Amino acid sequence: MQSQIHLPYVASVLLCILHVGHCRDLRNVTEPKTPESCIRLTATTEDETKTIQKALDSCGNSKAVELLSGTFYSGPLTIPSGVSLSVGSGATLKAFPDPALYDTGAHTCGTQDTYGVGCKAFITIHGASGSGIYGKGIIDGQGGETMTGRNVSWWKMPVNSINKGNARNAPRLIQINDSVDITLYQITLKNSPMYHIATSKTNGFTVWGITINTPSSAPNTDGVDPMGSQNVTIIHCNISTGDDNVAIKAITAPSRHISVLNNHFGSGHGMSIGSEITYGGSDITVSGLTLHGTTNGLRIKSNTFRGGLVTGVSYTNICISNVVNPIVLDMRYGRNVVGNLTPEFRDITFTNVNVLTDGTFTFDGLSDSKPIEAKMNDVHIKKGSKWISEYAKISGTWADDATGTACGYAGNE
Ligand SMILES: *[C@@H]1O[C@H](CO)[C@@H](O)[C@H](O)[C@H]1NC(C)=O
Ligand SMILES: *[C@@H]1O[C@H](CO)[C@@H](O)[C@H](O)[C@H]1NC(C)=O
Ligand SMILES: *[C@@H]1O[C@H](CO)[C@@H](O)[C@H](O)[C@H]1NC(C)=O
Ligand SMILES: *[C@@H]1O[C@H](CO)[C@@H](O)[C@H](O)[C@H]1NC(C)=O
Ligand SMILES: *[C@@H]1O[C@H](CO)[C@@H](O)[C@H](O)[C@H]1NC(C)=O
């Protein structure tokens, strides 16, 4: 019925399809190559912080410090511009679980308070160009180990007696700020005390063939969080963790031109955009994703406190099984969190999405004048699923006719 079609809406939905070249990382990304080593280190049983840091500082441009074999114990490390760290297949780099080593000055690292900014990361890359982390070895954040001088782990930290709150002061595993052309390749990350990988204002970021393997019970252990970053590719990864597998955010700058291609997510809170999206998230492609056993599947969350424009998002060739909430688009995330910003979700397309087990699908817009605008092509969901839609304009076709019992695997095999 032609009269029901809202023309400006149709035009906006077509944008990402017609200009699909823009809804992705604008770089032509190819498989990374591990840089040549400037030095090869073998583990001792000592504190290795100074040895590794010294090697990184004197390594030289386009070369890598290679951890050859054994278990290396270290406190926080900084990777300089142009330099990489390579953890070989026989090596594990373990973060000392000592809050004093990561404390940013207020002696709050290792406690919960109102701010959650009391610890620096285990590995920091700041103002760098062309740095990276490579190798088939393991970086272990030891989030489940007992903290030095305490009787609990990072994951179970106590509330600060003076400055109470529920923000956890625990080190992120890898923090990348104000950088360009950063690569993570093949590495396995596990047991981060907090987020595994977070970027801020970083343009040109490739995450290729990595594994994240952390228990589903570990709090705030997001997998990969590109924040205020552009030209990002996350490809051939296998991510199981305790919070968002991937979360795209925009707290201090826009996040755009992001490709999430051929990945597998095990446990976790799913493929997320938001909730902090003040500066906008756009031109995002998620393609070739299998999710098995996450709590959410494809999720965009925001509210009037953290809102902004999310547009030009395309999900294609997605298979979901054993997921409670396979698709959640929520403009009123955390019902009591309100402010005066305006979340907008427009030009969101779902193409060839198969959901093999029943679940709850939620499309919750802000109001009649700020509805969710999404389009579906070839979307198949399981009979018996629940479909909740308020203030949402969903066009296209979908049906509860999904068949098949297993999704296969789209990760780093
Ligand atoms: C990427 O490759 C295409 C096709 O070869 C080319 O047209 C385009 O200019 C390349 N883009 C960049 C940024 O190198
Ligand atoms: C993204 O990549 C394209 C192609 O290489 C480049 O022209 C553009 O400047 C990059 N954007 C940013 C913000 O670095
Ligand atoms: C840790 O120690 C404190 C006091 O030193 C005690 O109150 C608390 O019960 C202990 N917690 C655990 C998990 O043993
Ligand atoms: C990195 O950026 C985040 C977000 O802007 C900020 O909170 C953090 O302090 C920065 N870290 C470093 C080491 O600059
Ligand atoms: C993906 O990673 C998990 C551990 O996180 C592992 O058990 C599983 O075998 C991996 N899948 C493949 C196909 O490598």
CATH topology of the largest domain: Pectate Lyase C-like
Q: For the record, what is the CATH homologous superfamily label of the largest domain?
A: Single-stranded right-handed beta-helix, Pectin lyase-like
| Overall residue-averaged pLDDT value | 93
Secondary-structure-derived class: mainly beta
Which percent bin holds the helix content? under 10%
Note the main sheet.
10 strands, parallel, barrel
Q: What's the gyration radius in Å?
A: 21 Å
Proportion of strand residues? 35-45%
Unreliable sequence segments: 1-13
Which ligands, by name, code or SMILES, are bound?
2-acetamido-2-deoxy-beta-D-glucopyranose
Count of beta strands: 30
* Tally of distinct domains: 2
State the CATH class of the largest domain: Mainly Beta
Characterise the protein shown here:
By secondary structure, the protein is mainly beta. 6% of the residues lie in helices and 43% in strands. It contains three helices and 30 strands. The protein has helices at residues 7-18, 49-57, 99-102, and strands spanning 37-42, 64-74, 77-78, 84-95, 112-113, 123-126, 132-134, 138-140, 167-168, 174-177, 180-185, 188-190, 197-200, 203-208, 211-213, 224-227, 230-235, 238-240, 246-248, 255-265, 271-274, 281-292, 296-301, 309-321, 325-330, 344-355, 360-364, 372-380, 386-390, 392-399. It has a ten-stranded parallel β-barrel. Strands 19-21-23-25-27-29 form a six-stranded parallel sheet, with no helix packed on it. The longest helix has 12 residues, at 7-18. The site of one 2-acetamido-2-deoxy-beta-D-glucopyranose (NAG) has 3 residues, from loops.
